[in-house]
Design brief:
single chain, 119 residues, mainly alpha
Length: 119
């Protein structure tokens, strides 16, 4: 079924805690599939992150970003973790911002090494 059966079991147990009897086992299986599909997309993007064209990323209200960049003002960016936010950081860095990133340390050594290279 899944290569990471222990991790998948943890995902299923977490879904049981969060949703309880509100969702069926089939709902949980569908959610697990979405989680693994999302993880696959993120790791695929990370493997080619240097090749992703940051010019294709649209930043709404970019004029505020440019004003702060030209003035040398410190700026705080908050990114919703709805996907691979490492990509948006590449778009911001082209405006000469030096980024300091705060993130939760991942417990999985493989994930930690892979993502620290991309960040």
């Amino acid at each position: 079924m899944y290569i990471f059966q222990r991790v998948n079991l943890r995902v299923v147990n977490t879904l049981n805690i969060v949703y309880g009897e509100d969702k069926t086992i089939f709902d949980h299986a569908g959610l697990c599939e979405q989680i693994w599909r999302n993880m696959g997309k993120i790791y695929t993007e990370i493997s080619v992150i240097e090749k992703i064209d940051s010019d294709r990323i649209n930043i709404h209200n970019e004029h505020y970003l440019l004003e702060n960049s030209k003035a040398g003002q410190p700026t705080i960016f908050l990114f919703a973790h709805l996907g691979n936010w490492e990509i948006i950081s590449r778009a911001i860095q082209k405006h000469d911002f030096m980024l300091n990133v705060v993130f939760e340390l991942l417990p999985n050594r493989f994930h930690r090494i892979l993502l620290s290279i991309a960040r």
